[in-house]
Structures are given as C-alpha cells and as structure tokens.
Design a protein that fits this description.
Methyltransferase, Cobalt-precorrin-4 Transmethylase, Domain 2, Cobalt-precorrin-4 Transmethylase, domain 1, five-stranded mixed β-sheet, S-adenosyl-L-methionine, alpha/beta, 285 residues, 4pyrrole_Mease_sub1, single chain
C-alpha cells in the first residue's frame, strides 16, 4: 500500500497542474503559485506554455515532456526529484493525463516514493458534460476514438449498450465521419457538441445526432462530444452482431490471447453472454 499525505510531506513533489483551456483568467491562484515556486515545469509543448508563463510573468525553468520523449523524460524528472527539486507538469491546455501524456511519469514517481499532488483547474470534458443537458452521472469518458474508421466502428460497438453518458474528444476534420459512425452504430441518440470552451466563440450544439451532424461539419476548433447512453438496455442480438464480434475476437487472438480468453473479454466489453458468444462463434447453436 502507498499512503500519501499531500500537505504533510517535505519531500520534493510532482505537481499535476491544470491550465486554462482558452480563457487565461481561469488559471487558479494556487496553480499560479505552484508554477512560480516549482523548480522546473515539464511542458507538453514549451512554446505554448511559454505564452502562458509570459502572460503571468513566471520565469520558472521549462523542460519538454511529451508523448515522443515520455519514457526518457520521466526518468529525468525522477532524477530531479531525487535532487530535491519539485516539478510541475502541464499540458498544452486543461488537465494533464486526460488524453495527454503523463501517466507513465506519475507511475514512475509513485514507485520512486515521491508525492504526486493534483492542482485543480480547467477541464474540457467536465465543462462540456455539465452544460450538455444530458445526464452527468454516471458517465464514461473515452477520449479520442481511433482515427481508422473500421477500428472506430469496432470501439463504438463495444460501447453501444453502455447505459452511462458517453464523452469523447474529436478533431474538427474528423467530426463528420465520427458522428456518422455514431449514428450508424448507436442510433439517433440525444447529444451535445461543445466547442471552443471558455473562448470567445464557445458554442453548444444540442439535439439528436442526426440534427447536430450537418451543422457540426461546418464548425472548427477543439470539440467535446457528449452522447446519451443506451436507455433501452436490450439484450444484444448475438446472431446479428456476430460478424463484428468475430472480428473483435480475432483481433485479440492476433495479440496472443487464446480464443476462450478473447471470447471472455469481448463478452465483458460488449455486455453480452459469454456462453451465447461461444456457441455462436463455434457454430453450436
């Protein structure tokens, strides 16, 4: 067991600092204080973070920590902590680790025995969810669906029968294809598209997928997509879905799972009966 008392430790600390997602006035006083007093700031993009620091006249040393150097950078940050230097981690905007690098770093720092302290602030996912008009709880945050259409459809199939509100991030150049796939797989559910959150052109498009789709294709900027969960909660039709289920099973088999392990995992992910999938897969029905 690892026990941490964040405000009682005198050890060098890794701070996970949320930064504004557009409106700079949303940087909290505590986040500003941490960024000013940390020995080092590890940034996803040092150029973007420099703009934030310049605005608040913060001159803390900057280093790069992004998905392309995460493994080496994590080890370097642990070394800094061992030297007694506290490090603040920031992403380009919002909360680090939420569809951004940092997970590997946090694990390594915890294993090395140093405190990891979150510093609250902006988060696009939560901003969009609470203003969407859809049920805010329970919800499932997925992040970015795969850019490959076949993989995207497969992932949506695994989410189809989840009763909780679904939350995605999406890029404007993929939003039309993504919503078309959602309409095809999930059906015409209530949804909200939130974009440019906290910025001058902040906008919420609320309606059904079919209503929002043609408008969404004309919009720009960072997007959060909120879609209602499965309210019917019908037992999935194994026979009808079997072609996609077989492909799903084979993808896990190709990764080294046995067929039975793959069937068990697919059944769990799709909310289906393992026995029914097994019978259908092996032609025993």
């Amino acid at each position: 067991m690892n026990q941490q008392k964040s405000f009682e430790s005198e050890r060098a600390t890794l701070y996970i600092v949320a930064t504004p997602i557009g409106n700079l006035s949303e940087l909290t006083p505590r986040a500003k204080e941490i960024l000013e007093n940390a020995d080092v700031i590890a940034a996803e993009d040092t150029r973007n973070t420099m703009k934030l620091l310049s605005h608040f006249q913060i001159d803390t040393r900057l280093i790069a920590h992004h998905k392309f150097n995460e493994s080496a950078s994590s080890k370097g940050i642990v070394s800094l902590l061992r030297e007694g230097k506290s490090v603040a981690v920031v992403s380009d905007a919002g909360y680090p680790l939420i569809s951004d690098p940092g997970s590997e770093l946090v694990q390594e720092v915890i294993e090395a025995g140093y405190p990891v302290v979150p510093v609250s602030g902006s988060n696009a996912m939560l901003n969009a969810l609470v203003a969407s008009g859809l049920s805010p709880q329970p919800f499932l945050f997925y992040g970015f669906l795969p850019s490959n259409e076949r993989q995207r459809i497969r992932e949506l199939q695994t989410l189809k029968h989840y009763p909780m509100t679904l939350v995605f991030y999406e890029a404007p150049h993929r939003i039309e294809k993504m919503l078309n796939n959602c309409l095809e797989v999930l059906g015409d559910r209530p949804m909200c598209l939130a974009r440019e959150l906290t910025k001058k052109h902040e906008e919420f498009l609320r309606g059904t997928i079919q209503e929002v789709l043609p408008v969404a294709a004309t919009r720009k900027g960072e997007m959060v997509v909120i879609i209602a969960g499965d309210e019917e909660k019908k037992a999935p039709d194994v026979t009808q879905a079997m072609p996609l289920i077989k492909e799903h099973i084979q993808s896990y088999v190709s990764e080294g799972m046995t067929t039975n392990e793959a069937i068990k995992r697919v059944a769990r992910e799709r909310g289906m009966s393992k026995n029914e999938i097994y019978k259908e897969y092996h032609g025993l029905n």
